[in-house]
Amino acid sequence: MPSPSPSPSPPSPSSPVLSLLGRGLVAGGAAGLAAGLFALLLAEPLMDRAIRAEEKRSAAGEHARGAQHHEELFTRSTQHAGLVVAAVVAGLAVGILFAVAYALAHRRDPGAAPWPRALAFAGAAFVAVSLLPGLRYPANPPGVGDPGTVGERQALWLASVAIGVLGMILVRQVYVHLPDRTVPVRQIAAALTGVAVLAVLFLLPDNPDPVPVDAKLLWDFRVLSIASHALLWAVLAAVFGGLGLRAVRDGAARGAAVGAKAAGVSSRPGATPTAPPP
User: Fold this and answer.
1) Which residues are within 8 A (CB) of 129 and not within 5 positions of it... i.e. 6 or more apart?
2) How far apart are CA 131 and CA 226, in angstroms?
3) 219 CA to centre of own chain
4) Which residue in 80, 162, 228, 256 has its CB near the most CB atoms, within 10 A?
5) C-alpha closest to that of 193 among 219, 216, 167
6) Helices 215-266, 76-108: inter-axial angle, 10-degree rounding
7) What pTM did the predictor assign?
8) Highest mean pLDDT range out of 48-52, 101-105, 230-234?
9) Per residue in 100-116, pLDDT tens?
């Protein structure tokens, strides 16, 4: 009696980390493009006004000192194009970091739904990286500030981002490590932790430079800056979560197809059923 033919080995699933990195690149590129176009259409006119005001102040100072005015190396149209390109590149970098953080959480809980997890991750990232540092050090139009204090201002901003990220992790840990408490108690504890993080942020030194810009222009610019950050994280979450939902549907369809194929093979005499891929 001939021995049954060996069943084919199930295909090896692709690495979930590589799949998540691919989603992060697509979502980050789309988010960066959306934020760049938003800034180009809405924030750049305000930036142009701020630059013209700064040029007038600089020209007046140079005239008083008898110095010669130097033209900009790049035109504003070139800078506008560079803004969108830089936003896309930044979005790709953010997407990769987002995917890495998501992959770490996915390893601990692979059964969680991708859509709410992506929204929760993006919301926490927006608060930690954009909102909290923006409250302590609001964005200023280009050309504002002494060039000699650039390093100090960058260090202060990075410190505020680090405090925001660590603070959001601490808020999460406080909520998770109170499983025996009621939901309102856990939420209040997490909220109080967030307030403490905000208080620590405001212990950082103030911005070392004055902001000699019209108050309304400055307010509009800062609101649009926060709005562009919110748009970036919202698009990132929507695209990343949507790709995750599609991956779940595709995986379910492949599993159903393999199961049906295995059932059909096993119905033939002498055939060995194959197991669906994990």
Assistant:
1) 161, 164, 165, 229
2) 7
3) 24
4) 228
5) 167
6) 40
7) 0.78
8) 230-234
9) 999 988 888 888 889 99
Q: Residue 55: which residues within 8 A CB-CB, separation 6 or more?
A: 143
Which residues lie closer than 8 Å to 78 by C-beta, 6 or more apart?
Answer: none
C-alpha–C-alpha distance, residues 54 and 77, integer Å: 18
Helical packing angle, 114-125 and 76-108, nearest 10°: 130
Q: Do 254 and 57 meet the contact criterion of CB atoms below 8 Å apart?
A: no
- Nearest to 99, CA basis, from 163, 40, 25, 162: 25
Looking at residues 135-146, what average pLDDT do you find? 80
CA distance 161 to 164: 5
Residue type at position 64: A
User: Which 3 state secondary structure label does DSSP give 196?
Assistant: helix
Under a CB-based contact definition with an 8 Å cutoff, are residues 149 and 206 in contact?
no
DSSP H helical ranges for the chain: 16-38, 44-65, 76-108, 114-125, 132-136, 150-176, 183-201, 215-266
Instruction: Kindly give, in sequence order, each residue whose CB lies less than 8 Å from that of residue 245, ignoring residues fewer than 6 positions away.
Output: 114, 115
The total of other beta-carbon atoms located within 10 Å of residue 212's CB is 11
Q: Give the pLDDT band of residue 58 (cuts 50, 70, 90).
A: low
| pLDDT for the residue numbered 15 | 59
Phi and psi torsions of 168, nearest 5°: -65, -35
Report the residue count for the chain: 278
The C-alpha atoms of residue 87 and residue 32 are separated, in whole angstroms, by 5
User: Would you state the structure tokens that stand for residue 264, as one six-digit string?
Assistant: 């059909």
Q: What is the CB-side half-sphere exposure of residue 167 using CA atoms within 13 A? A: 26
Calculate the alpha carbon distances from 276 to 5, 13, 19, 249 in Å. Answer: 18, 11, 20, 16
For residue 105, give the H/E element and its range. helix 76-108
d(CA 31, CA 25): 10
